[in-house]
Design a protein that fits this description.
It is a single chain. This protein is an alpha+beta fold and about 120 residues long. It has one domain. It has 4 helices and 4 strands, in the order H-E-E-H-E-E-H-H. The longest helix has 14 residues.
Length: about 120
Amino acid sequence: MKRRDEELTAAMYEAGVFEDKKKRSYVATWLHPGTAHRCIYLFGIDKTRLRQETIQRANGFCEGCDVKHWVGEEGEDDHIQGGLGRQRCDCSENHQLVCQEFHRRKHVAVRWTRREREAVT
């Protein structure tokens, strides 16, 4: 199964929705879980634009913590459904603005290379 929907991706570039100069952003061939639209994967300026949209949608407040607090431009963009597979899409409903503390708690696993591990011991 092809990963990219070439026709729909080309249409997004032609319409000016995707603006990445290297043409890396694309529309996938599969649907976003629980919706009727296809997943999108963004790069470059398109990813930056998604971040700004996420900040505006959250009104600058952390969406991860129970108590809402202001993070503004310092907030971090977090994939709600992360990982390395298809589920880590850049659809707007899969992104949230979070504070650095929440983001670090969510991703607690530190991955050390052998060289880094030896330097610590």
